[in-house]
Structures are given as structure tokens and as C-alpha cells.
């Protein structure tokens, strides 16, 4: 489900249109007081479902009192669920907002992931990917191996756990990561999200090989 207030927020019309038109999952429009998007996830051992609750922000909102208050409430809503903040990172100019948001989440009481997306129009497909991942029966060991493999997609050595989280949020799988590396706009988004150094290391790994020098 998604909050009807998204219709009134400037710049988010493509998100609403994409969610309404989604054929992968059903998204119900409703009123959500504390977050913008939510979908059910199954607890382990056959327990009742919980919810993945998400805030969506643009770069200009990062650091505002309202956004900060909503972020602080997010981990308190459901102790067994998952929480995330989606940030539109449209280009290098939004990198500072992404870094600031990451620092803010570190001070929260619960674990809140940061998921960068390239545009409001890209959010529906990213949410569909998240729902598929949360509904997957993939074993924890296999998930850990996939995460380890992703961290090693950088020339000169693996990415840090934090940078791996960002890369996982930005790209929906290894195929999408490769598309980013070979597309000029995708390269810009990688560098905006990871910083120039790590962004170039990822691009170099995918375009030239693991032992290649980073791009200049």
C-alpha cells in the first residue's frame, strides 16, 4: 500500500502512476500517518506477517525537522518488521544529501536502510524488486554469498559493508549493476551514490576486470 499524500507532493506523480499501473504486485492507495509505503513480509517460523515500512524523500528534504521526526519514528512502528528510507539521487549534486542521510540513520535506535533510486519514476520497479526479495525463499547462506559477491565487484578490493548496502539498494541485481556500469547516466548515479573513488572502482571492475586501475 502507498499513502495518498504522495499525490499531493511535488515531483512524486510518476511514482503514483507507476504503482497504480503495476502488474507485478497490487498496490492499494490508503492513508498512512507515519510512512509512505508499506507491504507485508512473512515472519520466520510461520508467525503472523509483519510489514516493510518505507519513507520516500527527495534531496531537499534531508535534514529537515519533519523528515528527521518521521525517520526517528520509523523503527518504533513494528519491532519485527523492516524499515527503509528511499532517496532520489538524480545526479552528483544529490550525493551530499545521500551522505547526510546515511549519517542520520546511524544515530537511530533501529536499523533503517537507505535505498537510493535514480528518479521518482524508478521507485515502483524498485519496490516491486524489494517485495520479490522479501518473499523469496532463498536461504540465509545463499543471501550472504550473494552479498559477499556484490561487495567484491570493485577493482582493487572489496567494498565496505556500508557501501555494499548502498550498491544493493541502487541496483536490482547483477544485471542491473552491469547496465549501470556501461551507461553514462548509470555511471553518474554509481559515483553519486558511492562517491567518486568507489564508484569508479565498481565501474572499472565491470568494464575492465578486477585488477584494472580505476577510471580517471
Describe the structure.
The chain is α/β, with parallel strands linked by helices and 216 residues long. It has two domains: 1-136, Rossmann fold; 138-207. The protein has nine helices and six strands. It has helices at residues 13-21, 65-73, 95-106, 123-134, 140-151, 161-170, 174-182, 184-194, 196-208; strands spanning 2-3, 29-30, 37-41, 50-57, 82-88, 113-117. The strands form two sheets. It has a four-stranded mixed β-sheet, with helices on both faces. The longest helix has 13 residues, at 196-208. The chain is globular, with a radius of gyration of 17 Å. The relative contact order is 0.12.
Uncertain runs: none
CATH class of the largest domain: Alpha Beta
Q: Helix amount, in percent?
A: 40-55%
The beta-strand count equals 6
Oligomer: single chain
Biggest pleated-sheet summary: 4 strands, mixed
Euclidean distance between termini CA atoms: 44 Å
Strand order of the largest sheet: 3-4-5-6
In CATH, the architecture of the largest domain is: 3-Layer(aba) Sandwich
Q: Could you state the order of secondary-structure elements as H and E?
A: EHEEEHEHEHHHHHH
- Number of DSSP helical runs: 9
Hey, roughly how much beta strand do the residues contain?
5-15%
Arithmetic mean of pLDDT:
81
How many structurally independent domains?
2
CATH fold node name of the largest domain: Rossmann fold
